[in-house]
Amino acid sequence: MRELEQLRVNLEIQRRAVAISIRRVDQTRENFNKPTPPPAAGQKITQFGPTAALNLLTALSDLRSSQNNFMSVWLNYHAGRMRLLRDLGIIQIDDDGVWIEQSVQEAVNAAMAGVPVEMPPDVPDQWYETLDNLPEPDDAESNGDAANNQPDTSKAAGAAAPELKEAAPGPGCRCRTSGKRKVWTRQMRD
User: Fold this and answer.
1) What global pTM score does this model have?
2) Is 111 helix (H, G, I), strand (E, B) or coil?
3) CA distance 129 to 106
4) Read out DSSP for 44-100?
5) Range of the domain at 89
6) Do 17 and 70 meet the contact criterion of CB atoms below 8 Å apart?
7) 127 and 103 in one domain?
């Protein structure tokens, strides 16, 4: 929450910096277009001041930089909001997988009101039993000498254990260790 508040403050600072840069460009253009004073007798007519073009180029460059900084902070702010909602488990996504934008307070209120959240299916008990029945790795493997640190299933040639594929955990999943293996489980809510 502190990080999100800091990003919100940075967003406001950058918004003001863009407004100041716009005013500076406007002021520089006004000075650029301002008529020059009449020359003294026998002097050449000068169209612009000695640094008018440089001032305008600098102002435009500063405007572009402040706009880029604003966009960067704006994207970080929205990404932070999405991370917070995801970590709290209250992010809402429509059928197309697009985030339904709402304030953090609205999302918390909706979660407190008991809006049902679809959870992934439970992990079958057979998978846990299969993990517990896999042979223990050799000492060389447990010391990190084995390739990929995967248990050697070739020793259990007679065993017909189903093949487990490693998958990324879903929302609400926690990692626990079963022997020397990691097992991802889903955290149940009350």
Assistant:
1) 0.50
2) helix
3) 42
4) PPPSS-TTHHHHHHHHHHHHHHHHHHHHHHHHHHHHHHHHHHHHHT---B-TTS-B-
5) 2-36+48-112
6) yes
7) no
Q: Which tokens go with 74?
A: 């704006």
Dump pLDDT digits (tens) for 88-132: 877 777 778 787 777 777 777 777 777 665 666 788 888 888 888
Q: Average pLDDT for residues 152-180, to the nearest whole number? A: 51
Q: Are residues 55 and 78 in the same domain?
A: yes
d(CA 64, CA 160): 64
CA distance 57 to 53: 6
Residues written for the chain = 190
The answer as to whether 93 is a domain residue is: yes
Asked if residue 161 belongs to a domain, the reply is no
Give, rounded to a whole angstrom, the gap between the first and last alpha carbons of the chain: 24
Other C-beta atoms within 10 Å of 161: how many?
A: 14
Same domain for 79 and 8? yes
Tell me phi and psi for residue 171, to 5 degrees.
-65, 140
The pLDDT value recorded for residue 182 is 56
Pair 100, 94: CB distance under 8 Å = yes
**Structural tokens at position 97:** 């997988």
